[in-house]
Design goal:
single chain, about 325 residues, alpha/beta, three-stranded mixed sheet, 15 helices, 12 strands, about 40% helix, about 15% strand
Length: about 325
């Protein structure tokens, strides 16, 4: 049975073991509070609720968006690009702190780069619906809605962890394929930065190209590190945003090393899934086995796209039209 057919008969409740307690951010909470809440729970995003809307209203009238670390990183970049730096560094440090306290979560929602989040009902939708939305329609997260509440938030990383743990024959067959045979081992344009550049320049690449991570390359085009939106945590906690952003990436990686996980084109999907899960990352860099030079980045979404049969062009329109939760 093809994997798409298998997933169409798999219930969303299979992801039950992947559930975490849903953290909800108040729209009027400060950005400083929100960033701390995400870090303490080791999560990258949380739904935002307008508590002024009664609970009796539909879920999509109460939940007004998602705050994620990439949006926060974009906000930091914009502020540094537009805010004059006072001569007195103490004054600027106080100015930075005040910025995060006076900025509300709702103020950042318009900056979100991610596609719309879409809801599914476990009673009427299958695992295939979840996977298709994540893989082909730029939906970064799928909300599982029960009794007018969000009971689970599913990302491509969630599904990849499930695929890694699943032992069914249909999935085992796909796991035996190599990255090359899945079309994930050939060169593809990948935005990257050099170790000689600054943290600011790396974050500017994230901002300008609407990506969540970039590899850091040395003079031989070998991957020596990784800068992602999650690094905004370290930036915000530093004594000065400007000092942290102006730091050379080589020095930054020494202090805040974010491991860049690599594989080779002939590695099997089984091995790649294991590396992704064991290292708790959303992407892996495919490098040439002979010299370690970067070939491309592969994200968890890329993996889903590679193993699934593309849906009809009308799928999304019909999904929304027939989904009372939308």
């Amino acid at each position: 049975m093809p994997i798409s057919a298998f997933l169409s008969h798999t219930q969303i409740s299979e992801l039950q073991h992947e559930k975490r307690q849903i953290v909800v951010l108040d729209a009027n909470a400060s950005l400083g509070f929100a960033v701390t809440a995400l870090e303490e729970r080791n999560i990258t995003a949380a739904p935002v609720i307008n508590r002024e809307v009664p609970k009796s209203m539909p879920w999509n009238k109460r939940f007004i968006g998602m705050l994620d670390e990439r949006t926060t990183a974009m906000f930091v970049c914009q502020q540094l690009a537009t805010t004059p730096v006072p001569a007195n560094t103490k004054d600027f440090a106080a100015q930075e702190k005040a910025l995060f306290e006076r900025t509300h979560v709702k103020d950042l929602l318009s900056l979100s780069c991610f596609g719309d989040y879409l809801p599914v009902d476990p009673a009427t939708h299958s695992m295939l619906d979840v996977c298709l939305l994540l893989a082909f329609f730029k939906v970064h997260r799928v909300f599982v809605i029960q009794n007018n509440e969000i009971t689970n938030i599913v990302s491509s990383r969630t599904v990849v962890r499930w695929l890694h743990d699943h032992g069914g024959l249909e999935i085992q067959g796909v796991k035996c394929k190599t990255m090359l045979s899945l079309g994930l081992g050939m060169p593809r344009e990948t935005y990257a930065v050099r170790a000689t550049q600054t943290v600011w320049e790396a974050f500017k690449v994230l901002h300008d190209h609407k990506v969540s991570a970039v590899p850091v390359l040395d003079s031989k085009d070998q991957v020596v590190g990784n800068v992602s939106a999650r690094d905004v945590r370290s930036i915000i906690k530093s004594p000065s945003l400007v000092a942290a952003m102006e730091k050379n990436l080589e020095a930054w990686l020494d202090d805040n090393y974010m491991q860049a996980v690599v594989c080779h084109p002939e590695d099997t999907l089984r091995n790649v899934l294991t590396m992704l899960v064991d290292n708790g990352v959303n992407r892996i860099y495919v490098v040439q086995p002979e010299d370690g030079k970067l070939i491309r980045m592969v994200t968890t979404r890329d993996i889903l796209t590679a193993i699934l049969t593309p849906p009809p062009a009308t799928y999304l329109a019909k999904f929304v039209q027939n989904n009372p939760l939308c």
